[in-house]
Amino acid sequence: MANVRSIAHNVLYRVLYEDAYSAIAINNAVHKENLSGVDVSFLSALVYGVLERKLTLEYIIRQYSSIRIKKIEKGTLIVLYLGMYQLIYMDKVPDSAAVNESVKLCKQLRLYKSSGFVNAILRNFVRADKAYCLPDQQNIVKYFSVVYSCPESMVTELIATYGQDLTEKALRGILGRPPITVRVNTLKTDKSTLRRELEKQGATVDDISFLENSLNLSAAGSIDQLPQYREGHFFVEDAASQLCAEILGAQPDETIADVCAAPGGKSLYSAIRMENRGAIYSYDIHEHKIKLMEDNARRLGISIIRTALRDASSACELPACDRILCDVPCSGWGILRRKPEIRYKTDTNIDNLTKLQYSILCMSIKDLPSDSVLVYSTCTLRKKENHDIISRFLEEHPDFVGEPIKLPEGIDHIIEEEPYCLTLLPGVYDTDGFFIAKLRRRPT
Ligand SMILES: C[S@@+](CC[C@H](N)C(=O)[O-])C[C@H]1O[C@@H](n2cnc3c(N)ncnc32)[C@H](O)[C@@H]1O
């Protein structure tokens, strides 16, 4: 039988200390160890759970440890995270199993000297009825930081941008796993047929109020094993990204450029909206991601996507387009549900990032004809990468004007912002955090 705790330990080590991404590291471990069913679920729950609660767990461990967190050997600390996580958040794991398995794990990992230390902390915690203190709410930054496991610098910036209440909503919204949202490929099927077929496979299927041709799936098992997936009847994409493509508004027979396109979700969505008529130029700077887009387009029976390797911050010519999408690389604060580890990577150079985003925007409009549409988007909540970029762009480009976004029923602006901007916060509409701005080059 697979030792899932030991595999989780290994995955966490890779994510926390070797810069691996959680989803990829979990996936690799599942294949390497040949895991299935409950083992996969347990592994995901442990890894995502610990990453999502790391600062909370540290705060509690500190209350029971005689050694400072920074002085605890990395492998031992991960055993403690895992043990504490099971004791606090996993009702189905008996306390005795959480403690004993943690001690056993120390021995398996040859952390012989640590096993007594781990045993004492976890046992004392259980003996104390799992009592722990949280920071005083008078210091709201520290309190949010510990309760929602986000660095204080992140909490401070979010409160400055969104205020305390919306920040708390957003932070609460990044806990737990996101829904699996799919876009129906209306080139091959329709929503009610797909729903019926997926339900027959045992999936629970829900509508999304503001997206006509999309569904949320749960209990669907491994998505890429479903026949409807393999036959290209849908693709997976978060609702916020789908809404972004909806706002881009591609029409049949138009020409579209998607300058930061991989893995291709918004290009695929647009191609379906366009009934596979017209042309979509989907570019990305990373070669290995180009093939991914091509594979997806093929599976969905889409023929109008033309992929190419291209640096969007370069002056390379673009075809004359009706619409252009700059879905730029960003700090990713809106997708912490999917990549919980992002919040601990505090070394992002924000100035370099905003410089790149701004230059992608400026280079992408060089060949954009008058009266064409430009959409700029990010999956972050940082004002510097969102509203500030757009304000500067409009100031420096008087030939562009904001185009009010027509929102579908079921969704509305959450914050006060220009009608051509839309900010989505996790925890409000069960979407990723996202920013979309729609502009138009003035007609001549
Ligand atoms: C936010 S993701 C795009 C997601 C995509 N639009 C979708 O809907 O699936 C940003 C993408 O930009 C790409 N990228 C980063 N720097 C780039 C550059 N200078 N030129 C073109 N693409 C770039 C990254 O490889 C990444 O795939």
TrEMBL record:
Q: What is the lineage of its organism?
A: Bacteria, Bacillati, Bacillota, Clostridia, Eubacteriales
Q: Which residues bind S-adenosyl-L-methionine?
A: 260-266, 284, 311, 327
Q: Which residues form the SAM-dependent MTase RsmB/NOP-type domain?
A: 170-442
Swiss-Prot/TrEMBL GO biological process terms: regulation of DNA-templated transcription
Q: Which residues form the active site?
A: 379 (nucleophile)
**Function (record text):** Specifically methylates the cytosine at position 967 (m5C967) of 16S rRNA.
Per the UniProt entry, the Enzyme Commission number(s) are 2.1.1.176
NCBIfam families, per this entry?
A: PRK14902.1, rsmB
Q: Which family does it belong to?
A: Belongs to the class I-like SAM-binding methyltransferase superfamily. RsmB/NOP family.
User: What reaction(s) does this enzyme catalyze?
Assistant: cytidine(967) in 16S rRNA + S-adenosyl-L-methionine = 5-methylcytidine(967) in 16S rRNA + S-adenosyl-L-homocysteine + H(+)
Protein's name according to its UniProt entry: 16S rRNA (cytosine(967)-C(5))-methyltransferase
Pfam families under this entry?
Methyltr_RsmB-F, NusB, RsmF-B_ferredox
Named from the GO MF annotations, one term is: rRNA methyltransferase activity
Q: InterPro entries per the record?
A: MeTrfase_RsmB-F_NOP2_cat (IPR049560), MeTrfase_RsmB-F_NOP2_dom (IPR001678), NusB-like_sf (IPR035926), NusB_RsmB_TIM44 (IPR006027), RCMT (IPR023267), rRNA_ssu_MeTfrase_B (IPR004573), RsmB-like_ferredoxin (IPR054728), SAM-dependent_MTases_sf (IPR029063)
Its annotated compartments are: Cytoplasm
Gene that specifies this protein? rsmB
Which is one Gene Ontology cellular component term of this protein?
cytoplasm
Question: Which keywords does UniProt give here?
Answer: Cytoplasm, Methyltransferase, RNA-binding, rRNA processing, S-adenosyl-L-methionine, Transferase
